[in-house]
Design goal:
This is PTS beta-glucoside transporter subunit IIABC. Keywords: Cell membrane, Kinase, Membrane, Phosphotransferase system, Sugar transport, Transferase, Transmembrane, Transmembrane helix, Transport. It is a multi-pass membrane protein. It comes from Youngiibacter fragilis 232.1. The protein has 612 residues and is of the alpha+beta class. It has four domains: 89 residues, Glucose permease domain IIB (Gyrase A, domain 2, 2-Layer Sandwich); 124 residues, no CATH class; 131 residues, no CATH class; 148 residues, Glucose Permease (Domain IIA). It is 48% helix and 16% strand. It has 20 helices and 20 strands. The strands form five sheets. The chain has an eight-stranded antiparallel beta sheet, with no helix packed on it. Strands 1-2-4-3 form a four-stranded antiparallel beta sheet. A three-stranded antiparallel beta sheet has the order 7-20-18, with no helix packed on it. Strand 3 and strand 4 form a beta hairpin. Helix 17 packs antiparallel against helix 18.
Length: 612
């Protein structure tokens, strides 16, 4: 996408959300612009969804999310550059609203907001650990050597100190002091405390209160629970501690109360919950891996669509910490590669050059980076049948991998570049599984087919073209101009107008606006290219009797006036006023079907298009 188009896209999106003044803050994740709007009622979700370059719009977790895909970072930077008054919330998330929805949705969204910022570090460190496993397994590196230990430290850093990362991120989510939160959790990893632990379950005394000792390195839930409790305690403290001494008193009291509370109560509860959750998930997988894989492989894409898929991350990380492996991630990989298969199937089946380009461009990040949202929203949801194909393929491959208890040894995004993360005794099963997902999905997408018309709003299909002028329809082959009657410019219809007003036959963008006013080109939001030519040889009038009402690049709605012309004056000059409406990209469609020839009103349907 050219830079100028980023600026156009940025402008259209900001206009759609109600203008820059309606944006409280903005940041982006891997594929989405995430707006916090002052007034949601000012945002036009439907119109934004139709903008070229936007895959879809999702509302949730207090955010208005515009899904862009791979180019989101470029669009984001363009928005920030064009609208400097919009708050760039990439670093500071304190302005985010609390999650909304039912209790389950709120829980998933909260987990997502906690884990989302640290995923990049978690995935990178995980890949180093996976590569080291491969190198040492094949004796390419010595475990006792200094090189291995240095790289091992790089790979273990995020996982060992994960409670600290979670403390900071949780504090941002619950809007409490991040550094006090870090200090509270750091106490659980400080040598004076860890030195007391000879084995998990040992008991010591804190002023006569028994303390069950546990190691917290690599744990997930204790840190999150502790800072959640602290978020309420901090609000209480700020009501009673004078501002004049808050600089030391707030952190002193917080540490004095929260560290013992975490050690005595919250920490052991958190460890027990985490272990229990992992036990339940893995027991279910062990008893019926086939069923678990079927459900996760088929259903993961729908969690992505809801935007709550990040909420499953704690379960996987907890498994890796406690067990050294995770069985959920391979099942998710089935859904990832099934989505990639959709892109291949659409690419092979579609005859629309824009659709093929989207399929090809979105398949690469899915295969190499595990990023599937451009496929999910741009192809699967848009064409519907591919969504079914990916669910079937993901379910079959997920069930296959679940049946054999396929394992991931570190946390990564499933992709071809992260294969070492699945290295081990079930690696061959993983390779077979993702290949199945990709191949079955591609085949089902291709053979089930899809109607590109399904991508448009049901209330107005962009594969239907309305009359551009009121008048009597005639066969275009009867027109007294060989260029049009021979259909060298494309198939279409001719109308002998009874009124001197040309209107938009579809919703779309003006691609060509001739200054003489006698002709105009428009591209619908469904990529139908239409040329409207008023009269034969009327270009010779050099604009006389014509008034052009729109300009090139302008977006128009169906029925909007485009040209006004003096019908009688043009006829009196001796010109044939027959108006041609031609689909110039007719070759992209299996059939350009003209309705029954009759007298028509403006915007009344006159052409149907069928995709190949």
């Amino acid at each position: 996408m050219a830079k100028k188009n980023y600026e156009t896209l940025a402008n259209e999106i900001i206009t759609g959300v109600g203008g820059a003044d309606n944006v409280a803050s903005l940041f982006h994740c891997v594929t989405r612009l995430r707006f916090k709007l002052k007034d949601l009622t000012k945002a036009n979700k439907e119109s934004i969804s139709k903008i070229k370059g936007v895959l879809t719009v999702v509302e949730g977790n207090g955010q208005f999310q515009v899904v862009i895909g791979n180019e989101v970072a470029d669009v984001f930077s363009t928005v920030i550059k064009m609208y400097p008054n919009i708050k760039n919330d990439s670093q500071d998330r304190s302005s985010e609203e609390k999650p909304t929805g039912n209790i389950l949705t709120r829980a998933f969204n909260t987990m997502a907001s906690i884990f989302n910022p640290i995923i990049i570090a978690l995935a990178g460190a995980g890949m180093i650990k996976a590569i080291l496993v491969v190198l040492t397994t094949y004796s390419l590196m010595d475990k006792t050597g200094s090189s291995y230990k240095i790289l091992s430290a790089a790979g273990n850093s995020v996982f060992y100190f994960l409670p600290l990362f979670l403390a900071y991120s949780t504090a941002k989510t619950f809007k409490v002091n991040e550094f006090i939160s870090l200090a509270i959790i750091a106490a659980l990893m400080e040598p004076n405390f860890t030195g007391l632990i000879k084995a998990n379950g040992d008991i010591v005394s804190f002023f006569g209160i028994p303390v069950v000792l546990m190691g917290y390195a690599g744990t997930v839930i204790p840190s999150i629970l502790t800072i959640w409790v602290y978020s309420y305690f901090e609000k209480l403290l700020k009501k009673f501690i004078p501002k004049s001494i808050e600089i030391f008193a707030l952190s002193m009291v917080a540490l004095f109360v929260m560290v013992p509370l975490a050690v005595i109560v919250i920490g052991p509860i958190g460890v027990t919950l985490g272990n229990g959750l992992g036990f339940v998930i893995n027991t279910l997988s062990a008893k019926s891996g086939l069923l678990a894989g079927l459900v996760i492989g088929a259903g993961w894409t729908y969690l992505v669509m809801l935007g709550i898929h990040w909420g499953v991350v704690p379960i996987m990380v907890n498994n890796l910490t406690n067990l050294g492996y995770d069985v959920i991630r391979p099942m998710i990989a089935a859904a990832t590669f099934a989505s990639a298969g959709v892109a291949l199937g659409v690419f092979l089946r579609s005859r629309n050059k824009d659709t093929k380009a989207l399929a090809a461009s979105s398949m690469i990040p899915a295969l190499l980076g595990g990023i599937t949202e451009p496929i999910v929203y741009g192809l699967s949801v848009r064409f519907r049948k591919p969504l079914i194909a990916s669910a079937i393929a993901g379910g079959i491959a997920g069930a296959f991998m679940g049946m054999f208890q396929t394992k991931a040894i570190v946390y990564v995004f499933p992709a071809l570049t992260t294969l070492p993360a699945f290295f081990g005794e079930t690696f061959k099963i993983y390779i077979i599984g993702i290949t199945m997902a990709f191949a079955i999905s591609a085949a089902l997408t291709y053979f089930m087919g899809f109607t590109e018309e399904a991508s448009e709003n049901a209330s107005e299909s962009n594969l239907e073209v309305g009359a551009c002028v009121e008048g009597e329809m005639i066969n275009i082959e009867q027109v007294n101009d060989p260029v049009f009657s021979g259909k060298s410019m494309g198939d279409g219809v001719a109308i002998i107008p009874s009124k001197g007003v040309i209107t938009a036959p579809v919703e779309g963008t003006i691609e060509a606006a001739f200054p003489t006013g006698h002709a105009i080109g428009i591209r619908s939001s469904g990529n139908v290219e239409i040329l409207i030519h008023v009269g034969i040889n009327t270009v010779e009038l050099n604009g006389e009797y014509f008034k052009l009402l729109v300009k090139q690049g302008e977006k128009v709605v169906k029925g909007q006036e485009l040209i006004r012309f003096d019908l009688e004056a043009i006829k009196n000059k001796g010109y044939d006023i027959t108006t041609m409406m031609v689909v110039t990209n007719s070759k992209d469609y299996e059939n350009v079907s003209v309705e029954e020839y009759r007298f028509v009103k403006s915007s009344e349907r006159v052409i149907r298009l069928n995709l190949i």
